[in-house]
Automatic annotation (TrEMBL):
Underlying gene: deoD
MF term (GO), any: uridine phosphorylase activity
Cross-referenced SUPFAM superfamilies: Purine and uridine phosphorylases
Protein name per the record: Purine nucleoside phosphorylase DeoD-type
Entry superkingdom: Bacteria
PANTHER family: FI09636P-RELATED, URIDINE PHOSPHORYLASE
């Protein structure tokens, strides 16, 4: 047990998928894993461990935003020995070529600040995804004929962003999408020598104002979960 995770030692697999929403962790575990067992529910942050094609995997909610993800990822890596952590979540599209329901494989995650900013100070550390996970995810997306993009994303610390010029500059510099967790996950992976990737589904669009209807979300999110699982175990 740690401060925020009630799992017993050994209850957490070396490979952990991290959706922001704890109920999506429950849905993904019940949909994709064999014999899913609830291993954490402290503060309602549900986590399940089960098997996918004979491989042990945990699906653990991360909560919204980098401070929340940082708590769970720190404890999963440092106390439970997680070695591969893949964020599965939604993002806002920031390029015309990026459409609603597309998948973004985040090669790097830019940010203004993260929970690690105190370490880096004025240095702009550019945390990358793990190359093998990224390569495997690309292969999985190709096989599934998913509409996917590989490139940079931006991890914001605000959802209701009052800085329109910032988003314009992100778009001008090729940022594919905005979400709120990946940069800190990549920082922690670099710090502790573990593998990380963010596989994201475009749920809304900053240029067009479109948003994914809630009834469509499950199917689109399912593709993302399977790409993440393929990437981890290829
Ligand atoms: N996650 C999904 N859509 C988002 C957006 N527009 N901004 C930040 N995070 C998001």
């Amino acid at each position: 047990m740690t401060v925020h995770i009630g799992a017993a030692p050994g209850d957490i697999a070396e490979t952990v998928l991290l959706p922001g929403d704890p109920y999506r962790a429950k849905w993904a575990a019940e949909t994709f894993l064999e014999n899913p067992q609830l291993v954490n529910e402290v503060r309602g942050m549900l986590a399940y461990t089960g098997e996918w094609k004979g491989n042990r995997v945990t699906i653990h909610g991360s909560g919204m935003g980098m401070p929340s993800l940082s708590i769970y990822a720190n404890e999963l890596i440092r106390d439970y020995n997680a070695k591969t952590l893949i964020r599965i979540g939604s993002c806002g599209g920031m390029q015309d070529k990026v459409k609603i329901r597309d998948i973004i494989l985040a090669m790097t995650a830019s940010s203004i600040s993260t929970p690690s900013s105190g370490i880096f100070k004025e240095f702009n550390f550019a945390p990358p995804a793990d190359w093998t996970l990224l390569k495997n995810a690309v292969a999985a997306a190709e096989t599934r004929k998913s509409n996917y993009h590989v490139g940079s994303i931006y991890s914001s610390d605000v959802f209701y962003d009052e800085r329109p010029d910032l988003n314009k500059e992100m778009t001008r510099h090729g940022i594919l999408g905005v979400e709120m967790e990946a940069a800190e996950l990549y920082n922690l992976a670099a710090r502790y020598g573990v593998r990380a990737l963010a596989v994201l589904t475009v749920s809304d669009h900053l240029l067009t104002g479109e948003a994914l209807p809630s009834e469509d979300r499950e199917k689109s999110f399912g593709d993302m979960v399977e790409i993440a699982l393929e990437a981890a175990f290829t």
